[in-house]
Amino acid sequence: MSRSTRTNGEARVFVADKREAILRAAIKVFAGKGYFNSKVADIAKEAGIADGTVYLYFKSKDEILHSFFDRAMEDFIAEGKKQLAEIEGAQEKLRRIAQLHLERLGADRELAIVFQVELRGSTKFMQEFSAAGFGEYLDIIRETIADGQKQGVFRKDLKPVVVAKILYGALDEMVTNWILSQKSYPLAPMADEVLKVFFGGVLQK
Amino acid sequence: MSRSTRTNGEARVFVADKREAILRAAIKVFAGKGYFNSKVADIAKEAGIADGTVYLYFKSKDEILHSFFDRAMEDFIAEGKKQLAEIEGAQEKLRRIAQLHLERLGADRELAIVFQVELRGSTKFMQEFSAAGFGEYLDIIRETIADGQKQGVFRKDLKPVVVAKILYGALDEMVTNWILSQKSYPLAPMADEVLKVFFGGVLQK
DNA sequence: GATTGGTGAATGAATCGTCATTCATTTTTA
DNA sequence: TAAAAATGAATGACGATTCATTCACCAATC
Questions:
Q1: A47 CB closer than 7 A to any strand C atom
Q2: Among A27, A86, B131, B181, which is least packed, fewest CB within 10 Å?
C-alpha cells in the first residue's frame, strides 16, 4: 500500500495515523450504508489497505464503532467542560452548550450521521452508552439547570432532569433533521432558535 | 402449530390474525435484539410457526419491518387527526398531540423500542420515512403552531417549522429515555412537564 | 557500496459460520 | 379427495475473521 514508514522516528506517528485513517474511513462507510450493511472490506478499500490490515488495528468490526463513540464523546465532553469553566451564569452556560453541540456535529456531517443514526440503531449500544458518555452529558446540562434555579434565573417548578432532556431532545432533533435534509444549511445558528423557545416559551405574553 | 382455522367465516379472520401474530412476534424479537441481530427463525419460533410460514405472509424480513412502520404510523396519524378535529384552540391541540404521542408509545414498550431504535437505525428507513409518515406528523404540529400564531396565542417571532421540531424532539427524547430506563414509570404524564417548558419557557419572570 | 538475514507490518485468498429464502413433501381443511 | 396451508430441511450467498505468505526496511557484515 501507500507509503508507510520512512525513518525510525516517523514510524510511530504513522501507526497512530493509520488507526486514525481506518476510523475515518469507517465513519465514511458507516455514514453511507449503515453499520450492518457495511463490510469490513468496504472500510479497508476506503482506507486504501488490505482487508486483513484492519485487524492489526482493531479487534473486530464492532470495536471500530466502539472506538469511534468513545473517542468522539470523550472529546466532546472534555471540550464542553473546558469552555463552560470560562463562563458565568447558568443561562450563558446553556447557550454555550447548545452552540457547541450544534457546531460540533454541524462541522462534520459524516460523523454526525454515524452519531445520530448508528448510536441509536442498537439498544445494546444505547444502554452501554447511556451509562457512560451520554449520561454524563445529560448530567452536565441538568446541573447547570439546577444551578440556574438556585441562582433564581430559572423557574423552580420544573424538574431539572426533565428540563435537561427537553433541551437535549430539541437539539438532537435539529441535528437529525439536518442530516436527513436534502438542502444544506448551517446547523449551528439553530441553537439560538432553540434557546428562544427554551428560555422564553412559545406563548404570547 | 396452533389452531388456525375452524369454519368458513373464521378462516379469513384468522388469516389476518396470523399476519398480525407474526408482526407482533417480530416486534417482540426486534425489540429484544434489534433488527439485524434477529433471525427470521426467531420470529417464527416466537409466533409458534415454521420458518417457511413467515414467507406466506411477508415477502421478506425487510417487509415485516416496513409493514410495521407503515401501519403504526398510519394508525397514529389517523387517531391524531380524529382527536384534533374535536378540539378548539392551538394550545389545547398541541397538548392533545403531546399526550397522544406519549400515551401511545407509553402503552406498548416493545412497539416503542422498535419505533425509537430501529426506525433511526437506518438512514435508508429514515429517508423514506421522512418523506412519508414522519413528515406528515411534523406538518400537523407545524400547522397547529402557525394557526396559534395567527390566533395570537403564540409568539410571532418564531419559525413554526423549528418550533415543531423542538416539540417533537423533546417528546421523542422522553420516549427514548423511558425505553432505556431501568426503572418503570408512566410515560404519559411527562407530556405536561414538557408543555410547561414549551409554552412558558424556563426563565423566571 | 553491496549483500544478507532478521523483524514486524501488510496482504488477500481461503475458511467457517451464519442466515434469508426456497420448495418438495406433509398436513389440514372443505 | 382436491385444494390450500404449513412445514422444515436444504440451498446458496454472503462476509467477518484468520493465517500462510510476501514485502519493506534496517543494520551488521563483507
A1: no
A2: A86
- What does the pLDDT look like over A98-123, one tens digit per residue? 999 999 999 999 999 999 988 887 76
Where does residue A181 fall: left (phi above 0), alpha (psi -120 to 50 degrees), or beta otherwise? Answer: beta
CA distance A145 to A159: 9
Provide the ipTM.
0.90
Q: pLDDT digit string (tens) for B21-53?
A: 999 999 999 999 999 999 999 999 999 999 999
* The residue count for chain A: 205
Strand, helix or coil for residue B203: strand
The nucleotide minimizing the C1' distance to residue B55's CA is: C21
pTM comes to 0.91
C1' of D8 to CA of B25 (Å)? 19
Residue ranges and CATH numbers for the domains of chain A are: 1-58 (1.10.10.60), 65-200 (1.10.357.10)
* CA B53/CA B64 separation, integer angstroms: 13
Spell out the alpha helix ranges (H) of chain A: 8-33, 40-47, 51-57, 61-85, 90-106, 109-113, 119-120, 123-129, 135-151, 160-180, 190-200
Measured between beta carbons, the chain A residues lying within 8 angstroms of B176 are 120, 126, 169
* Cell, residue A120: 441509536
The reply to whether the CB atom of residue B1 sits less than 7 A from any atom in nucleic acid chain D is yes
